[in-house]
Amino acid sequence: MKTKEDSDIERRLLLAILLSMAVLFTAPYLLKYFNPPPPVPPVTETIAAQSEEERVEVPDFKERMEPQVEAPGELLEAGPATAAEPEEILVESELMQLRFTNVGASLASVRLKDYLADDGEDLELIPQTGLRVRPMSIYLDGDVRPDRLATAVFEVSGGSSRILRAPVTLLFEYRDAELSVTRRVHIAESGYQLDVETEVRDGSRSIPFEIALGAGIGNPPDGAGSDFRDPALAFPEGGSIERYKIGDLEEGPVRLETAARWAAIDSKFFTLLLFQPGAIRNLLMETESWTPPDAGDDTAGVELVSGTVGLAVSSSFTLFVGPKKEEELAALDPGLIELINYGWFGPLVRPLLGALKWINSSVGNYGWSIIILTFLINLVLFPIRYKQMASMKKMSALQPQLKSIQDKYKRMKKEDSRKQQMNTEVMALYKEHGVNPLGGCLPLVLQMPVLFAFFRMLDASIELRGAPFIFWIQDLSKADPYYVTPIVMGISMVAQQKMTPATGDATQRKMMMFLPVVFTFFFLNFSSGLVIYFLFSNLFAMMLQLGLQKFKPDVAVKKPAGKKPGKAKK
């Protein structure tokens, strides 16, 4: 079943905004009802073996490996079945630590040097311990044993050490009585891409095969955290990105025949993506249950999304394992930037993100950059805010006359036909003084696209991950640990309401004062970067209101000559 990608945090923001608008638009009608006032290229050669001096000491993994020197070899010629012992090979590049296993010629670990986990260690992208499916494993659709190559032990060559420094090419080879497999994996010195060539032969002919993307992304206990939130199997389809989550696979595996250019296990900030235009035949999406090794018998397993990609014979592909940064994805293919889930507001988010990164290139602090960008956005929205405040001032000046009209009809029953005359008189009063009753709300509605675009930018952009601001705020992508900024934001909303011209009766104004409490509650778990935007947006709006009060703009409110306020016209 296909579903739209809507994160919980976005729904909470939308709920807060809709609740606000509901209060604005429905309060008068509710009050009236109850009778108050109204209301990269393929690899073609193997890199030379590295010298002993080039070995990299990596304490995290070295103790797991027993060095077994293996000279680089050519493709296996006809002979006996492959007989090798399981081993691991560590490759270190500028940005990654990669651990391969010759069991299935697969990828066992990817750690990113530029991104730290909560424990201060390099961030791990591949779930560890006890998973059945490993990235890059080879499967044979329709075979008696589809996983025979995923569990086979390959011979591996490509260096004089099992701890290597990129650039390097690893050669994996396997043969049994029926099949022979050759795989080359090239790891560049920099970047997050692996270039892989794979051929599976049954006798003298090449046959198609499937490549596993893996099961889940990130360590399963962290799967619900902000880094790996909303894991899904994603692929392009019909000009948009389709995402299958755990809930979409509850009824069993889903196999799709598709010619997608790529497929990925995706999450909020990071992705594991297989890119191969023209060779992808199908996708198999399913779930895998994972249980911590030290869990008790009654511990429920964690469901992970799993996927395999069917490829044509003798295929080469690129595997991207890294952060969802526009420049990194676009370097592989410009269309991949759509994997960053900005929602409907992508066309507006990208210029905002470009402006934020441009400001940060000079400021060097994303927190202050958000504040500066917020100020610039308020300058652009100044005409709209000005009209909104001027309209609210006009409405405030008309309150006595409106109240007079309402008092005249308040004792009449709702079914009384004369009750409609009240609306006629109110609209005549608005027309006489050139007041649009929606003038205070429409500018707010016009600001909503910018508000949601800024929200999506701050929520989905990895640039803010781990970016410090000041003092206790050391990660703008996470919530304020002490809730200082959301509480101050709520206080600023109260102060702003106090400064805003009153446009309703006392009961309606009391209802409006409840909105800061609602917003403060919703924003407690939002990213601190988003809260900072809303806080300073309120502060800049208050500065604008103070300026308008000082210069006293003409609101052009007139009193009707020779009539009592609110008297009905004959």
- Give the DSSP E fraction (strand runs of 2 or more residues): 15-25%
Low-pLDDT ranges: 1-7, 34-77, 555-570
Q: Write down the CATH topology of the largest domain.
A: Beta-galactosidase, Chain A, domain 5
> How far apart are the first and last residues' alpha carbons, in Å?
63 Å
Radius of gyration: 31 Å
- Number of extended strands: 20
What's the helical proportion of residues? 25-40%
> What is the CATH first-level class name of the largest domain?
Mainly Beta
Question: Which assembly state applies to the chains in this document?
Answer: single chain
Number of helices: 13
Shape: elongated
Mean pLDDT across residues: 78
Structural class: alpha+beta
**What is the CATH architecture assignment of the largest domain?**
Distorted Sandwich
Major beta sheet, specifics?
10 strands, antiparallel
Number of discrete domains = 2
What features would you describe in this structure?
The protein has 570 residues and is α+β, with helices and mostly antiparallel strands. It folds into 2 domains: 8-37 and 350-398 and 435-551, no CATH class; 87-339, Beta-galactosidase, Chain A, domain 5 (Distorted Sandwich), CATH 2.70.98.90. It is built from 13 helices and 20 strands. It has helices at residues 8-33, 59-62, 326-332, 346-363, 366-380, 382-397, 399-409, 419-432, 442-460, 484-499, 506-512, 515-523, 528-551; strands spanning 88-92, 96-101, 106-116, 122-124, 138-139, 155-157, 163-165, 168-175, 179-187, 193-202, 205-206, 209-215, 232-237, 240-244, 254-257, 262-266, 270-275, 280-290, 302-311, 315-323. The strands form 3 sheets. Strands 6, 8, 9, 10, 11, 13, 14, 16, 17 and 20 form a 10-stranded antiparallel β-sheet that branches. A 5-stranded mixed β-sheet has the order 4-3-2-1-7, with no helix packed on it. Helix 6 (382-397) crosses helix 9 (442-460), helix 7 packs antiparallel against helix 8 (419-432) and helix 10 (484-499) packs antiparallel against helix 12 (515-523).
